[in-house]
Amino acid sequence: SSSASIDKHGFKGSKFRYAEGAGALFVNAYPAENHSLSFEFGYGYMKLDFSDNPAFKQKNFHDGIFSIGYVTTAVKDWRWVANLGIHANLDHFNIGANAFYTGMIWGRLAYSPPLGIHIGVIGQSGVKSTYLFPILGFDWYFHKQWKINAVFPLDLSLHYYFAKSWSSAISYRSFGGWYRSFHRVGKHENHPESMFSVHANGLDLGIYFDSRYFSIGLFGGANFGGWILIRNRHGAKPVYYHFDYAGYAGAKACLEF
Fold first, then answer.
1. Which pLDDT belongs to residue 5?
2. Nearest of 67, 15, 68, 23 to residue 42 by alpha carbon
3. Model-level pTM?
4. 8-state DSSP, 14
5. What is the pLDDT of residue 117?
6. Which 3-state string (H, E, C) describes 93-114?
């Protein structure tokens, strides 16, 4: 979560608070050696509390998430991942007008024991927006206690493993993850069925515990400023509300069984 000040003519000094969270259950199946399927059933939450918002008054947004993934290591030295997913807004449910779809093809080549090369493509479409990004980068254990993840746009981090199951990391993080989390508001707002997204990137320091069945992490840092983008119901007439840098904090956890 984070809070910041708006820096736009007519709105200077206006405050807004942003928070996000998500939870998911993954069910895995193993139809054959070196092949697996993963089914995600998830929920996402976003809070956008912008008191001087001229377009809409809604502050809390809820999403249902479903995805199916396929992983194979059948090709020597390669791990390939394919994934298709949907994020559907539950407040004003409409699969066609108020949901976005994601897709990914991602390969990792074990180039040498300490070095992995990543290639692929990732994208999303829906709520009058389409984006496509290449996946490019590497992960490198350049020391037994140090690892760099430089995989655009999925993971940009530097890890230090200081004890068994424990590490710390400096991470470059995008609010919402790699995708642009668009939402459409209701018909009775000042700007009916308008749509918005929040864009911000930050740098944080975290501490992480990772065991065979359980992992948890706590992190905190600051974003570099960003903007709220609001468009009309047709996806046109974009208006940007820029905000200043601000601190943020977060946590994540995973249980496997």
1. 65
2. 23
3. 0.88
4. -
5. 98
6. CCCCCCEEEEEEEEEEEEEECC
